[in-house]
């Protein structure tokens, strides 16, 4: 019998307004210096503005945005026989969400001239319409994996 206790994965908390754990993950990604209340305001106002602009329910917009920007495959560098190859691998579900939120917030912050709330709204609307830089990043990742699919047999090493 092993003496160590099993390491159980923590359950994700839900946000107070939508009762959704994925919204809480986005809030945590937007949060700076531990100021969760400010991050909640930014995310909730951005979702409300996007819903107002698109005339749809905020959670429908959020779920559609997630499906539009969540990658399925990525490339990983693997060194085989002195050469480095970009090997396409499938992404675990947790990492998929992590990458999607990272790209959404990163490209929202890259926009200039307006408050973060408006930048996140613009990125959400663009991602909902399958345009925008977060969607482009997903497509680039998939193109890279598709271009290197001949090397997929190296993924077992």
Outline the fold blueprint.
Elements: H1 21-30, H2 36-54, H3 58-69, E1 73-80, E2 83-90, H4 93-110, H5 116-128, H6 133-147
Antiparallel strand pairs: 1-2
Helix pairs in contact: 1-2, 1-4, 2-3, 2-5, 3-5, 4-5, 4-6
Give an account of the 3D structure.
Residues 2-149 form the Small ribosomal subunit protein uS7 domain. Part of the 30S ribosomal subunit. Contacts proteins S9 and S11. The protein is mainly alpha-helical and 157 residues long. The protein has one domain: Orthogonal Bundle (Ribosomal Protein S7), CATH 1.10.455.10. Helices cover 55% and strands 10% of the residues. It is built from six helices and two strands; from the N terminus they run H-H-H-E-E-H-H-H. The protein has a two-stranded antiparallel sheet. A hairpin with a 2-residue loop joins strand 1 (73-80) and strand 2 (83-90). Helix 1 (21-30) crosses helix 4 and helix 4 crosses helix 6 (133-147). The longest helix is centred in the first third of the chain and has 19 residues, at 36-54. The radius of gyration is 18 Å and the shape is globular. The mean pLDDT is 93.
């Amino acid at each position: 019998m092993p003496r160590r206790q099993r390491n159980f994965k923590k359950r994700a908390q839900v946000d107070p307004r939508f009762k959704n754990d994925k919204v809480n993950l986005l809030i945590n990604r937007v949060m700076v210096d531990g100021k969760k209340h400010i991050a909640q305001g930014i995310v909730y106002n951005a979702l409300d503005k996007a819903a107002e602009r698109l005339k749809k329910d905020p959670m429908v917009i959020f779920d559609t945005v997630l499906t539009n920007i969540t990658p399925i495959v990525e490339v990983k560098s693997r060194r085989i026989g002195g050469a480095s190859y970009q090997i396409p691998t499938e992404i675990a579900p947790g990492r998929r969400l992590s990458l999607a939120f990272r790209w959404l917030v990163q490209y929202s912050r890259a926009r200039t001239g307006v408050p973060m709330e408006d930048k996140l709204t613009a990125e959400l609307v663009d991602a909902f319409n399958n345009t925008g830089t977060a969607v482009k990043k997903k497509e680039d990742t998939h193109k890279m994996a598709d271009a290197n699919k001949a090397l997929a047999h190296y993924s077992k090493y």
